[in-house]
């Protein structure tokens, strides 16, 4: 079943990933760039809506969008493989940094709790990191197992987590404001050459430059440095803050699940995500600098919100309880981000595999659960190796994480910009600031966003040694894997078949509402030609799926009763043709943002199969497209005859509608129903009634009595085998002459 979600639920899914960065971005960023870090985080969160606008435009073009699809469409397969390699690096790092951060919060809570009860534990930082890493590995294994089983968090789970997180955020903001009123605080210094100071590891390969001078254990921009060095310094600071903007690719992936109207709901989800993350992520950093003393704040680099809770005004037991609440919320969001990273990586790899880049070996389903277990195993192993290599150090993970984030954004930005020129036809929505010079449109908004992202990406290459080395190595390895696998695939696969969706069949001896997952009174759409699905598009446009279900049915014709059992094996029942057909059906349903149930029925006669299935599903309407072999009247007659062959008559009046490519349709009523009379028919009945009713003894005769008498006489004539059939022949000839005129 294809199910779709509201923009609130879509925003909740994205915020479970994006919002989790609020728990770990503040500490490492301040360690990299100094006390001005909150301003850069605020700037990144404001800029995030511009980046989100890129994803909205690309997702409006491609329902199954994301970096891979957009880059491939714009720049070709090679660049698409490079971009998706960087994106997978992003997803792979999301799990470890989220899991380790969750572990840091739990270890921090344990330390605070023990101290409250008089036990001075005070483990060294390496021990804390190792414990956090161990917890992260356990979380990764847990969600690895869940994904192997195919148990994914639903949008309901995401909504519940966001409800709890919102309560925490409101308390956090309120208590922070109360603390500032009671005790006072100080605003983080505005960014400038005087206030910016960098950790040695934040300079990367720029550390030997003479314009960066040591001051204690940190570095500042020299007073005699030229103006462009100040710009580079700002870009460096923004680059170290960019991981606050992770999670945008999740929006592109969740787009296909958004309900109708898809674009409107996508934009609403974008605004919800923007406002929530802006308030949560940026305010945490501002409050931390304003409330936690400078001497104490370095202790909470890895669990900044816990540090806030400890330094609020109020009784210690209440602060400890709130810290526990923070840790619970943080664990839910951060562990949810671990799960999202596995799901996201698996989704991206499956999307790449669908394009023939990965061989079927990677997509082989797990025998019991039907999941792509080899991909999930690969992702989990890489994440665990990353946790071990980082030794549970959040700062190291944060530095490496930024590589995948910024480069996936940059590839998507330039690809979307290039598509403006490569495919200039009308779009549902565009990134604003478009200047028109005659027939040429210059996307200044896209140009600006792309150049800013490229500047940040190039700056990060020079200043983030760990990120650059690990990111390039990882990207090169995956690019090589994709390239070799694609070449092997070309020798084995028809690439047109590789583009098709994979469906898991659920066989049943009979069709029922519970088996299909539909409600009575729905719409049954007969589909066969994957190139002509305009009638399905008509149904999707005109049907409110909150009230009626849509079932797309295709008939697999079996040749004879003798071969029926052999023909009903899975490989014969659902061939590449049905796979291609349902791939197009799913794509059309996703475009409209409405759910469609899928059904394959084996039968020797298509019309009998449709009629019998509509009876079993208790539908209200059957919709079919026009046929290349039969006229509309012939289709209706064939369906009518099949209807009369049903062993039991349906309990409701069913309409059969044939819709052409232009969206215009002809409706027929199946079974016993009131005929559709023309004006001439009504006039004839009325004229006969006037003649009959003139006789005084027949003054009570109604129009229906005229019809009843005429039909009774016709029935008698037919039984007597009179020449009354000639009258029908003459009537048909007259109808044909009218159509020709």
Tell me about this structure:
The chain is of the alpha/beta class and 741 residues long. It folds into 3 domains: 7-484, Amino acid/polyamine transporter I, CATH 1.20.1740; 513-669, HUPs (Rossmann fold, 3-Layer(aba) Sandwich), CATH 3.40.50.620; 679-740, no CATH class. The chain has helices at residues 7-18, 26-33, 37-61, 67-75, 77-116, 125-149, 155-183, 200-203, 227-241, 248-254, 262-291, 304-310, 316-354, 360-363, 373-390, 394-422, 444-463, 465-492, 495-498, 513-516, 534-542, 564-567, 570-573, 576-592, 606-616, 632-644, 679-693, 703-719, 725-740; strands at 197-198, 212-215, 218-221, 434-437, 440-443, 523-526, 550-557, 597-603, 621-625, 655-659, 665-669. The strands form 3 sheets. It has a 6-stranded mixed β-sheet, sandwiched between helices. Strands 1-3-2 form a 3-stranded antiparallel β-sheet. The model is unreliable at 559-571 (pLDDT under 50).
């Amino acid at each position: 079943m294809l199910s779709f979600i509201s923009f609130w639920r879509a925003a909740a899914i994205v915020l479970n990933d994006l919002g989790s960065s609020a728990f770990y971005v503040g500490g490492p960023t301040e360690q990299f760039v100094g006390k001005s870090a909150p301003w850069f985080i605020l700037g990144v969160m404001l800029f995030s809506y511009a980046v989100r606008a890129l994803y909205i435009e690309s997702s409006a073009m491609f329902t199954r969008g994301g970096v891979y699809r957009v880059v491939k469409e714009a720049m070709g397969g090679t660049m698409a493989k490079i971009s998706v390699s960087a994106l997978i690096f992003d997803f792979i790092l999301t799990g470890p940094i989220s899991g380790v951060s969750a572990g840091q919060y739990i270890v921090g809570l344990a330390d605070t709790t023990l101290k409250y009860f008089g036990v001075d534990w005070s483990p060294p930082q390496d021990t804390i990191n190792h414990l956090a890493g161990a917890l992260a590995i356990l979380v990764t294994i847990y969600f690895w197992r869940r994904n192997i089983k195919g148990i994914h968090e639903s949008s309901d789970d995401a909504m519940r987590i966001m409800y709890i997180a919102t309560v925490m955020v409101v308390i956090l903001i309120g208590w922070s404001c109360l603390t500032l009123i009671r005790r006072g605080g100080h605003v983080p210094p505005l960014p400038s050459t005087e206030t910016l100071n960098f950790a040695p590891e934040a300079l990367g390969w720029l550390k030997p430059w003479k314009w960066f001078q040591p001051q204690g254990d940190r570095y500042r921009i020299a007073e005699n440095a030229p103006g462009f060095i100040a710009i580079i310094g700002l870009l460096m600071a923004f680059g170290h803050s960019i991981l606050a903007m992770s999670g945008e690719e999740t929006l592109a992936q969740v787009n296909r699940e958004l309900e109708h109207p898809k674009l409107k709901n996508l934009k609403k989800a974008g605004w919800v995500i923007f406002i929530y993350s802006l308030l949560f992520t940026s305010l945490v950093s501002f409050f931390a600098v304003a409330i936690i003393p400078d001497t104490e704040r370095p202790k909470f680099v890895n669990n900044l919100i816990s540090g806030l809770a400890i330094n609020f005004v109020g009784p210690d037991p209440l602060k400890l309880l709130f810290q526990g609440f923070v840790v619970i919320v943080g664990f839910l969001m951060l562990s949810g981000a671990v799960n999202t990273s596995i799901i996201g990586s698996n989704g991206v790899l499956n999307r790449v595999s669908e394009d023939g880049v990965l061989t079927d070996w990677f997509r082989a389903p797990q025998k019991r659960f039907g999941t792509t277990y080899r991909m999930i195993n690969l992702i989990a192993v890489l994440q665990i190796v990353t946790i071990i290599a980082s030794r549970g150090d959040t700062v190291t993970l944060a530095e490496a994480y930024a590589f995948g984030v910024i480069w996936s954004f940059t590839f998507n930005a330039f690809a979307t910009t290039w598509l403006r020129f490569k495919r200039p036809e009308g779009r549902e929505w565009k990134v604003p600031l478009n200047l028109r010079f005659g027939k040429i449109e210059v996307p200044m908004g896209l140009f600006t966003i792309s150049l800013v992202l490229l500047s940040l990406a190039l700056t990060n290459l020079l200043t983030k040694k760990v990120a650059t080395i690990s990111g390039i190595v990882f990207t090169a390895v995956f690019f090589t894997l994709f390239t070799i696998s694609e070449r092997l695939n070309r020798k084995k696969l028809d690439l047109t078949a590789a583009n098709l969706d994979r469906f898991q069949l659920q066989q049943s001896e009979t069709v029922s509402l519970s088996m299909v997952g539909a409600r009575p009174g729905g719409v049954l759409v007969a589909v066969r030609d994957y190139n002509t699905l305009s009638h399905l598009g008509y149904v999707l446009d005109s049907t409110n799926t909150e009230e009626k279900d849509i079932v797309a049915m295709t008939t697999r014709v079996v040749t004879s009763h003798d071969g029926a059992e052999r023909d009903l094996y899975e490989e014969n029942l659902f061939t590449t043709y049905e796979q291609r057909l349902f791939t197009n059906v799913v794509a059309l349903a996703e475009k409209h943002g409405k759910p469609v149930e899928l059904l394959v029925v084996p039968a020797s006669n298509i019309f009998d199969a449709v009629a019998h299935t509509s009876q079993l599903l208790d539908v209200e309407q059957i919709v079919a497209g026009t046929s290349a072999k039969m006229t509309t009247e012939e289709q209706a007659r064939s369906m009518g005859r099949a209807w009369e062959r049903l062993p039991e008559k349906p309990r409701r009046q069913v309409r059969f509608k044939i819709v052409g490519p232009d969206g215009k349709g002809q409706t027929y009523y199946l079974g016993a129903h009131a005929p559709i009379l023309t004006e001439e028919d009504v006039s004839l009945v009325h004229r006969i009634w006037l003649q009959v009713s003139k006789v005084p003894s027949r003054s009570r005769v109604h129009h229906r009595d005229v019809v009843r008498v005429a039909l009774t006489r016709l029935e008698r004539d037919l039984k007597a085998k009179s020449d009354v059939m000639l009258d029908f022949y003459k009537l048909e000839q007259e109808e044909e002459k009218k159509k020709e005129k």
